[in-house]
Amino acid sequence: MRTYHQLTDPDRSGLADQIGTQRKRVAERLAGVRRIVAVMSGKGGVGKSYVTANVARALARAHKPVGVLDADLNGPTIPRLLEASPSAQAPAIGLDGVKCISMGQFLDEGAPLTFRGPEAESFVWRGAMEASALREFLGDVEWGELDLLLLDLPPGMQRYIELCDILGNPPAVLTVTIPTPESRDAVRRAMRAAVERGSALLGIVENMVGREFVGTAADDLAQEFGAPVLARIPWHPAPGTWNELSARL
Question: Is the pTM for the entire model greater than 0.90?
């Protein structure tokens, strides 16, 4: 497989110009957004979306305009967490006035994400279509003036890498883990990849603390990466927990 720079002129089809134009459009649309933060872990089941939604609500209650982009296209949960009903409006307005956009707003209840195209070759172009959808969420949605736009990432690193390419610069990262050593090991790999890409590590949130999940994942990661532990979220957090976390971002 040839890389872009190995293609001949007819094959390039103005690709560099297209990429430049898309990045410019995204930059123009996000010009009113003061900060962009990716919420990630590299692992599923640690509560990234739960943390994202509640941090956004706490910021909104403090009269700060905030938005959430649900980058988990195949397993979107932000609309339910923010009680944002399907709407032609983009972005939708969820609890406490949080602006949000999610593939879940455009899918029928229980329906999987599908794209139109040749089924026999879906493995080739599906990734490109998902990246295109993410680009539209960033570049076509009228976010307006925001103090903070939170990007709720799915498990794995592919969406983070796509975001870096679309934005042109790596976003700052808020890391979520649970206490277990298994989570620590998975999150470590994601944090290492983020550092190598140039993302600033804002800190670590240890979620689901105090019951079945036992370990020192947050402290271990904080020591390894020199990032602060911003919060330890119990299974049934009090409302003030989210206020304290949002104030530290």
Answer: no
